[in-house]
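Q: What structure does this chain adopt?
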Amino acid sequence: MTGLLEPTLYCSEELTEGIISHLICLAVFNIVFSITALVGNSLIFVALQKDTSLHPPSKVLLRNLAASDCFVGLLQPLFATYLLSLVHQRWQLCVYTFIICTITASMLVEVSFLTIAAISVDRLLAILLGLRYMQVVTLNRVYVVVITFWFFPIVGVVVGFYSHNAWEIFTVSKLIISLIASIYCYIRIFARLHRHGIQVQDNAQVSTNRTISLNITPYRKTVYSALWVKLALGLCYLPYLFAAPFLYPKIRMRQASGFYFFMLEAFISLTFFNSSLNPVLYCWKIKEVRRAMKDTLRELCCLRND
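A:
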């Protein structure tokens, strides 16, 4: 395990100096939002299962994202345990929880990034393929893609047992590729939508053109919904991504003060908060999910009253 992590560096009394109360607040924060992540994403999962208006492969991608967010909700109490073990100087518990949290969190982050990238690719294919989209983007193919998303992080962990640097390179490269793919897809999508708008204004749209045969208005809504999820991910992860290259070397060289360590843990907590934010975005931006969610909650209330 030492090839993958150096847990003793992150379980030290030096790191907690002057920030005991701050770590307790972070622990409470994670416990509270673990509940919202679990409840919110579980309801989204059920709502997506019931909804019949969304294209099944697209629903699989959304359910996969909700599933990874549910796992984050399960991980947050363990992360809170890690923080509290630092407070109470339970070093053995600290080491175990740190290892589990680090490995699991890195895997879930990869799955989330890859899934959101796949959603953007799915939206691009919808506008490029037109009527052929249903034939190309099939349920079985999307299931294969989703299984691959969960397989890649496991390979990364296995690599990490032999080399920590190789694990970091393997993980970061996948995140960068996912980000580049998403940006490229959205550029192509908005370029095509802009071109379609010009064609409509000039009355030059051809009814037999397969690339613009889909109904643009609902399609545009799905694109903006996916973009909102992407932006939320970026807002929650950017502070950590910018700070990590500066803070981790300080901790490894034992130069980090309590303040720097608290900032690192706060940024990690913010990334976890994204899992509680996504269900809100689904309900706000996707009308079909919002309707299915209301029906699910109504059924649950009726069962409770009975």
